[in-house]
Design brief:
The structure is a single chain. This protein has helices at residues 15-32, 38-70. With 78 residues, the protein is mainly alpha-helical. The chain has a domain at 36-72.
Length: 78
């Protein structure tokens, strides 16, 4: 008997492939859930994307404010 490839608990996949596999697993979870509609799946995906936008917007705003201060745009206390 010959065993081909690494044992099942050892992965030789790239990070990109692992990420794609995780996304596939998540999509499969949604599609196989009989109580979840396509619209609910769509709404949850949009909601999660908005969470990421809000998260990064907070740090973008902070970086813009810091740059403004570094460029000399600050209140003067007379």
């Amino acid at each position: 008997m010959t065993i081909e490839g690494p044992p099942p608990f050892i992965t030789n996949t790239t990070y990109e492939q692992q990420r794609k596999d995780r996304m596939g697993d998540a999509i499969g979870d949604y599609l196989c859930d009989e109580d979840m509609t396509a619209k609910q799946t769509y709404d949850e995906m949009l909601s999660e994307i908005q969470v990421w936008i809000d998260y990064h917007q907070k740090f973008l705003d902070k970086a813009i404010a810091l740059k403004s201060l570094m460029m000399g745009h600050r209140e003067i206390d007379l």
